[in-house]
């Protein structure tokens, strides 16, 4: 049952202010939230997720005004992008103010900030009256949750409360853009494309796909293996599937015979919106493998290709 009533939001906000953990919906995926200004509460996020301390968290706010209160610098590009894409699936990495605990930012002098567009997320932030640090509400490196049921299945009673806002519409994590260096740098692709950002602020550098596993990362989602089902995920071309074992096949243009065949959308946004839910459903069926047809190599598919590349990494 959807927890959209104001009483549920008030209970969740009370928990956030008291140092608790609340899973809540955003338009991208479900987040595991804590008061971003409470280091002890944020430490619980890392503990529950078994998340490496070098992977920073994104801080969710309800407005540009709240975002500016957390950033030590606010370049003109941040203002342009915030006015165009917030609320929405864009995270901006900016120099941080000292009141943000280092645990939120993996000890870095920068912080990722975004304004989510899901009404329940915005209501929670406003009711709590504090910025909310929130990675995806799942064990580290596992498939991100796009429904409240996914959260409950993966985290159970380790979360103090789950707000159910229905399925996430975007379906993959936010685009992350750093404005903290000499040039804007795309750290994680997502629903808002590099081309859309460049049309607004000019050239954007595309960061390498993988960072040093032993160091603090500039953004979440930079580990080589991430967003992974428990079932081995294979990227295939031309409908060529593994010769042994039983499995599921997610295809776009090249059908093939498998025990479970799922025809995926040929539009990048529509594909992203159902990808994780499809993988969650197939992951519990006991297959030996899940084969995924490699999506088109075009700019609009960059976010999907990034997630699949990390999900299939050794």
SSE topology:
Blueprint: H1 6-17, E1 22-25, E2 30-35, H2 39-49, E3 58-60, H3 64-68, H4 76-85, E4 90-95, E5 110-114, H5 119-128, E6 132-133, H6 148-155, E7 161-162, E8 175-178, E9 185-188, H7 194-201, E10 205-206, E11 233-236, E12 247-251, E13 260-263, H8 268-283, E14 289-293, H9 302-311
Parallel strand pairs: 1-7, 3-5, 4-8, 9-10, 11-14, 12-13, 12-14
Antiparallel strand pairs: 1-2, 2-6, 3-6, 4-5, 8-9
Outline of the structure:
The chain contains nine helices and 14 strands. The protein is α/β, with parallel strands linked by helices and 314 residues long.
Description of the molecule:
- The chain is of the alpha/beta class and 314 residues long.
- The chain folds into two domains: 6-206, DHBP synthase, CATH 3.90.870.10; 233-311, no CATH class.
- Helix content is 29%, strand content 18%.
- It contains nine helices and 14 strands.
- It has helices at residues 6-17, 39-49, 64-68, 76-85, 119-128, 148-155, 194-201, 268-283, 302-311, and strands at residues 22-25, 30-35, 58-60, 90-95, 110-114, 132-133, 161-162, 175-178, 185-188, 205-206, 233-236, 247-251, 260-263, 289-293.
- It is globular.
- The termini are far apart.
